[in-house]
Amino acid sequence: MIEEHSANKQSELAPDQFGYMSDHLITRIGSRGAWPEWANYAEIPVEFQVRTTLQHAWAAVNHKLSYKRVEEVPTALQRRLFRLSALFEMADEQFSAIRKAAAELSDEYSDNVKQGNLDIEIDADSVDAYIQNSAKVRGIMAAAVKRGFVLSPVDGPGVEQPRSSLLRLLDFLQVRTIGQFDALLPEVAEAAEALAMRKQVHREICPELHLRSDAAEHEILIILLLLYYDVPQSLFSTIYNAGWEFFLETRTRSRNRQ
User: Fold this and answer.
1) Could you give the dihedral angle defined by the CA atoms of residues 185, 188, 190 and 192, in that order, rounded to the nearest 10 degrees?
2) pTM of the full predicted structure?
């Protein structure tokens, strides 16, 4: 980074000023400039503008109004723009504080799960922390992989829908804490048998039904809860588009083996 040409635009504003806020970082390609294919670009500076979403929103407002300095703003509008600028900055600070608090809470959830303290209120972050740190769940996931499931991580892309479905299912089952959730799940050996039964029933009675092998880790727990507890078709249909009869047969066989 070329520090003498880089700038923090917010630091250039006086305490009573509003205006454009962003970090402007000027750099060059560095050691790659020694490579023949990059030699023509070695001395060309590149600017990166780094700003938050709200700083970008303010930049758009600033650009539309075309006011670069307080002195350019009509007196009748100055107070309104000062208030708007303060709200943008305050909101930015609050979003950053909330994000930091959420990360700290997630770490706290993880530490509690590792220590076996499961008296934790159910929410999206606590469920993720439980899935990632519970020895029981890790055993269930290992069993699922052995039975052909290809799992995507709990924090991977596309987990929002299965996470939401799992939370909805837990709410229906009146599960309010991670400890209650843990108590509902079968032990690893039993879960492995249930997942194997699911594939056996699929081969025997409905091979035409597309049974996905790729699944978010939340989905494995959804499958087990659906097999072990009475869930109405109306709720099942909010999770899966088809397969109610297949699910009923699998649940019946799983229960008969218990």
Assistant:
1) 110
2) 0.71
- What are the Cα distances from residue 36, in Å, to 26, 29, 114, 152? 23, 13, 53, 41
| The total number of structural domains that make up the chain | 2
Q: Which residues pair with 222 in a beta bridge?
A: none
Is 252 inside a domain boundary?
yes
Tens digit of each residue's pLDDT (9 = 90 or more) over 2-36: 655 555 555 555 555 555 566 778 888 877 778 88
Domain extent at residue 20: 7-97
Q: Tens of pLDDT along 175-218?
A: 999 999 999 999 999 999 888 888 777 666 666 555 566 778 99
Whether residue 90 is found in the same domain as residue 31? yes
* Token pair listed for 45: 């500076």
Instruction: Yes or no: say if 225 and 176 are a contact pair by the CB < 8 Å rule.
Output: no
Same domain flag for 31 and 86: yes
**Judgement on whether residues 163 and 227 belong to the same structural domain of the protein:** yes
Query: What letter represents residue 68's amino acid?
Result: K
